[in-house]
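DM between two lab members

TW: hey, do you still have the Apple domain-containing protein entry open?
JB: yeah, one sec
JB: this one, 197 aa:
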Amino acid sequence: MAQVKRQGRRAARAAIGIALALLALAPAAQGQTGPEDVVPQARVVLQSDLDLPGNDLSMIRQLGQDACVAACLATDACRALTWNARARACFLKTGAGAGAPYVGAHSGIVADTAPEVIALAAARLAASGWVRDSDRRELAEQARRLSVNWPGDGSDAAGLRQHAQDATTPEDRVHWLGALAALTDAAPDWAALAVAL
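TW: and the structure you got?
JB:
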């Protein structure tokens, strides 16, 4: 009986050892995260309670906001969008028309990432081997979702900074700083958001 228990323990240890070895090899098998995986080529800067009438490219029904943004970014001709929360309808657009107030709509314009930002990301990624690929992917996802999580209200950068300064709760401050970072994509605005979080 003791012999069977020892063999069972050895088999369990061997299985655990194999599993740990496979986990250690997993990041290498996935490949290194490149700058295009961390810094998106484009992003959508959203504003809440705004419609961008006209210039419709296509309409997709029963779609969530994240999927609407992803659909726009995956469609070459899409340069703006309006997502209607009540109808769960996504309107991909060839351009942004004049905005019109519409409660429950979220609209956004595609903002392309400057080539020098992508080049800088490549240099910084090469110099930061200590940052795990899983962390890089998580940061990229956070950057892609920034405007979805914290849409603006149509204010320019100065207006969003003022909203953040006037915020009466930490949550409101984070919201306006998130909207600001989504709009400008500037390092000081990202840093201010990181401090507020």
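TW: got it. The chain is about 55% helix and 20% strand. The chain has two domains: 37-131, 150-196.
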